[in-house]
Amino acid sequence: MSADLTFGPVPQAPGFRFERHASLPSTNSTAMAAARAGQASGLWVLADVQTQGRGRRGRNWVSPAGNLFASVLLIDPGPRERIGELPLVAAVALAEAVDTAVGAFGLARLKWPNDLLVGGAKLSGILLEAEPLADGHLAVVCGFGVNCASHPEPENYPATDLASLGYRVEAGTMFRCLSASVASRLDNWRKDGFEPARRAWLERALKLGETITVRLPEEDLIGYFRDIDPRGQLVLELPGGKRRIVSAGDVFFGARSEG
Question: Which CATH number fits domain 211-253: 3.30.460.80, 2.30.30.100, 3.50.50.60, 3.30.110.170?
Fold first, then answer.
């Protein structure tokens, strides 16, 4: 076993365990490889640095030391038709973990489906990936990247980090808060369904009732952000009153694609 690896149970999340690496190409890729190799559900993979971190739609995720890079492996976390709810459940769990870590309720707001923003600047990203395994089970990996100590300067949107906001939160502290919050929200999701997480998500929603642009592969939709439906999909009211349900797309604020 590599000398740069530590592992063990997650005290604040019974039933979960972790392995921590000094450097990995991607915590998501490592967690999914562990699933293919037969690892059981509940494994957290952490890295001090990622060299090939990924965001949604294959975008690069800048991953310097001091920030949190963590992915959790879940095997058959729930009914397959409900897996699309998990990105929003994860976003609520992360937002609540940030609150706990900084001691300030409601610091982060949510941009559909699962970006955390503070003052309009991106604090974190979440990437959920699923893959059927050879034995018929479904492996789901949910990766979290949280800007604790620093942030990149992307061209297309503003970003921020907890240190810049005046909060000194080490990556280890952020992980302890996150692992407890994820365990709690998953348990709640399994027992009580999606509605509690949906309500919690909407309480933090950015631009609810306002004009947004949703970029799809074949078109841009401009309309009012009306709701999140019981499956976690975005409900957009188009000009003229017709409603469009969006299951996947990039959201921009305002009528222009800048946000």
Answer: 2.30.30.100
